[in-house]
Sequence to fold (149 residues):
Amino acid sequence: MNLLSAAHHLAWTQHPTIWLCESFAILWLVLRMVRSTWARVGVLQMLCGLTLNALVTQANAGTMPVVGVPPTIRPAGPVWHLATSNTRLAFLADQAWLGLFSIGDLVLLSGGILVVAICLRRLFRLRGGVTLRPPGWTSRDAAGSPSEA
Fold:
């Protein structure tokens, strides 16, 4: 796991453009596999979130600033650093008031949740037998009462 973390850190800090292109390629593959308007919206959200994170990281020499944290707190890893008066694009950085997420993170997560929801919906529809209603209930039961057997 440390090797994977180190490779991710190296790719993000030294070559964020390559990392971003790889992420775009993966999301493009998702788009090709799931041909749904909502999945495309989710992938576009994910691309926007990645771009926002790449912008702030690139503007701050390959590290993600953290805004609103006391100076006595140390960042969890070398990818983050505490924001200073010299921090560029601080409004796109990780924010304490957002639970240490950035705006890009939230946009990325919302897109990811949308894509996963669309994929799960398709999976349940393809399997045919998976229902989210309790046994004994039918779709005709508009009032929510159990069907008569």
User: Anything to note?
Assistant: The longest strand covers residues 64-67.
